[in-house]
Amino acid sequence: MKYFLRLFFIFLIGINLVYAQQNTDNSVFNLFPKKIDNKKAKKDSGFDFIPNQKQDNSGFVPNNQKNTILKPSPFQNSNSNQHEKPITKSLFASYIDLPNKAYVGQLIPIRIKLVIARKFETIKFSSLSNEDGQVIDYLTDLIHDENSKNVYFKNILFKANKPLDQLPPLYIELINKNEIEESISLPSHKISIISLNDDEERFINVFAKKLEIKKFKTNTFDDKNLIMVMEINAQNSNIEDIKFKNVQKQGIDTKSGDYENNTIFYFIIFPKERQKIQMSYFDTGKNKFQIINLPVEIEQEDLSTQIDLNPKKSKFELYKELALIGIVLIFLLLFIIKKKYFYALIAIALSLYLVYTKFSPKNDINIKQNTKVRILPTEKSTIFHTTTKIEHVEKLNQINSYVKILLPNKKIGWIKDEDIIKN
Prior knowledge:
Structural class: alpha+beta
Low-confidence stretches: 22-85, 301-313
Shape: extended
Strand content: 35-45%
CATH topology of the largest domain: SH3 type barrels
Number of strands: 26
Number of domains: 3
Distance between the termini: 133 Å
CATH architecture of the largest domain: Roll
CATH superfamily of the largest domain: SH3 Domains
Helix content: 10-25%
Largest sheet: 5 strands, antiparallel
């Protein structure tokens, strides 16, 4: 009996060995390479194997299996099987009309050509290096080329702070709904930017195609100094950088216009001993210094009325008053000739209107005691008068929190809005 059982077990073992040899390829361990480290297998395969789960002979997870056998490995890039959408470039730019030579401090006009092959809301320009220089002003909006759908032009100004042999990179951003959708860098461009000769003592730091002193007046400022006010017109200039040497105080009173044609009222305060004011600017058209001499002649009349700073003294107002007076005289003459009261009523109505507009107190204000009257509407401007009592003055203009007034002594200055006595 024992002998029979031994033969039966040997028979079963033989059958099992034959069956195992025939089904070697279907083993679950054949999912992994032979003689490979477990940890390395996890990293290289991209999946972590979870044991103790049922699996069919093919090595794949059945569709009706509730528990997941394979999960993404932490070593695997989650985007590895995704194809990134290629970015299509739709913004191109290039320099045109760029000068080959310029000077430190000069406003350099630059024209840029843009090709934009997509819809956009705004375009933003900026310079990378504030140390080298900066974009000063955007002269115009984008100019669309009528002959091409996607071509635009843009004019800007650049001012260099030091000598350069190339224009710094300019960055351009395409913006939609307050988000940058595309940006490019316009590369450096070769240009010679040099410094002027410092030996010119009269140089007022202005580069211009043309500069002209339209008007100038001189008056006493205090016991030791005089004040001169000039109306200066400049074309293609950096007139806002104007600076005289060897004066006590200076500044811009008012300005108007743009880069191509700019007008400012400028004042300088200097010692009484000076007999003339000398200045020079650099003529960019002729590439040389132009010298201007202004004689110092003290005017007894008020400065402001002489240079037409008081709007009530303008020629337009004078012509209007003369015309109204002429019309009144005509209707009075018609009344005398035709004896019709209708003409007399018209003459009286026009006369009342003339008197009202001439002497209307609508611009009269009272200012507080100890009010400081400045030459310019700025905090650091020179104070030339301080009221010792409440004064009745005329309001001429207002810029932000500063009010321009005409004092009883016919001097014009600026006070803070808070110094006006409110009714």
